[in-house]
Design brief:
about 425 residues, six-stranded parallel β-sheet, four-stranded antiparallel β-sheet, elongated, alpha/beta
Length: about 425
């Protein structure tokens, strides 16, 4: 137990500790109340009590429900729930009917931190619009902690939000902190609902208590076109084999078909070859190799002028969606509602599918060959093996026709489609 709060050096003890993927709260609550009581909302509702005989209530002020109450001496009282709740903290001296501390969470003009994990692209692009929505709703002074490459991509588009890497935070004494991420194992303490039931990106809306409807991030889309011929960008690599399109000839069929339609095909993965152990995935034959560790803005500049993008349930699909071009998204380990909506989603229901969204299963980040239902059997990865090149090419044909009609190069009559 700490010494009585009145003697604390806040500048020293309020430094953040980094644990796992998130920034954790200051060791001592940052807000000072009467009688040397300290409180804040940096890990749910937190109260640190000095010597005395106290009665504490934690209330959901929107519903009026008392979430927890107890008698206590010197020590901590904290909420179980860590996501956004409009908490009300009441502290009484035992025997009194009038609280000496009665604080309802009010974020207006308060310093607030949202901590995002680092090392991921699609997750951050899916989550960040909810942070902006949160800032607008509460009119708080918001700082978002994330990886530098994402900051470089987004910061100029959101001047009302301060961006920092986890090791260079500007907010020393935040009033509240929220940690946006994916919580497995049925965790409903850090998220109000299991993210697999609502879509992992919408989970940020539920954690932050804002409208969960999806929207793409804003990007700088002002770069001029540098490739004059029609082209399509593709990305075939991902972080685990379950996310790949595991049909042996699928990409070859798609690349050949795209070329027959008059498109150049540019592969924009970070790596031309990726895998683990004996399992490796290679850039599809016949594509133009645009792979490499390029700044994300360079990828945006290239995607912005592509006719469309074809990819997996991975970060570059989210980046392409944010550039406002059509996205053909191929995935079987996730259900169609798991990602952003695209009318060009490719999914096959004739075999095993949707393990990512199954709340009875937990994704194993350390197992590159994760396939929880059929690993080491002939049915492994049938969720995408059964997605054929023919199926994807059918989606491409419909999209190609829709673009042609939009551009006025074809018309429909009673007999069908006519080239102009």
């Amino acid at each position: 137990m700490f010494n009585e709060p009145a003697s604390i050096n806040y500048c020293e003890l309020s430094r953040y500790k980094m644990k796992t993927s998130f920034i954790y709260p200051p060791e001592i609550p940052t807000q000072s109340g009467p009688k040397h009581i300290c409180y804040d909302f940096n890990d749910g509702a937190r109260v640190l009590l000095p010597d005395g005989k106290w009665h504490v209530r934690l209330i959901d002020d929107d519903s009026g429900n008392i979430l927890f109450q107890c008698d206590s001496g010197k020590g901590w009282v904290t909420s179980t729930k860590k996501y956004f709740v409009r908490f009300r903290i009441q502290v009484y001296q035992q025997g009194s009917t009038h609280p000496i501390l009665d604080e309802t969470l009010n974020l207006t003009d308060k310093p607030v931190l949202i901590s995002f994990p680092t090392g991921t692209l699609g997750d951050l692009l899916g989550w960040f619009p909810y942070a902006e929505r949160f800032q607008k709703q509460h009119q708080c002074r918001l700082e978002c902690a994330m990886a530098q490459n994402i900051i470089d991509l987004l910061a100029s588009q959101y001047p009302q939000i301060h961006f920092s890497t986890p090791d260079k935070l500007q907010t020393v004494l935040p009033y509240a902190t929220y940690r946006v991420g994916l919580y497995f194992g049925g965790d409903t303490d850090n998220q109000p609902v299991d993210f697999r039931q609502v879509g992992f990106h919408r989970n940020a809306g539920y954690i932050l208590g804002v409208d969960p409807r999806e929207e793409p991030v804003r990007l700088d889309l002002s770069s001029p076109r540098t490739i004059q011929e029609p082209y399509v960008c593709i990305a075939t690599q991902s972080t685990c084999q379950a996310k790949y399109w595991n049909n042996g000839t699928g990409w070859s069929e798609v690349v050949a078909h795209l070329k027959s339609l008059g498109y150049r095909v540019l592969c924009i993965d970070q790596y031309a070859h990726h895998g683990e152990g004996l399992i490796w995935n290679h850039i599809p034959w016949g594509t133009e190799d645009f792979t490499g560790s390029h700044p994300l803005q360079e990828r945006v500049n290239l995607l912005r002028h592509a006719s469309f993008f074809i990819g997996l349930s991975s970060g570059l699909s989210w980046l392409a969606w944010a550039t406002r071009i059509p996205v053909v998204l191929i995935s079987g380990f996730s259900l169609p509602g798991s990602e952003f909506y695209t009318p060009w989603r490719v999914f096959n229901s004739h075999g095993c599918n949707g393990c990512w969204d199954d709340t009875s299963l937990n994704f194993d980040h350390k197992d590159f060959l994760w396939c929880p239902r059929h690993k080491d059997t002939p049915r492994q990865y049938e969720c995408t093996r059964l997605i054929t090149g023919r199926q994807v090419n059918g989606v491409i044909d419909r999209l190609h026709l829709a673009l042609a009609e939009q551009n006025g190069s074809v018309t429909r009559d009673k007999k069908g489609v006519t080239d102009e």
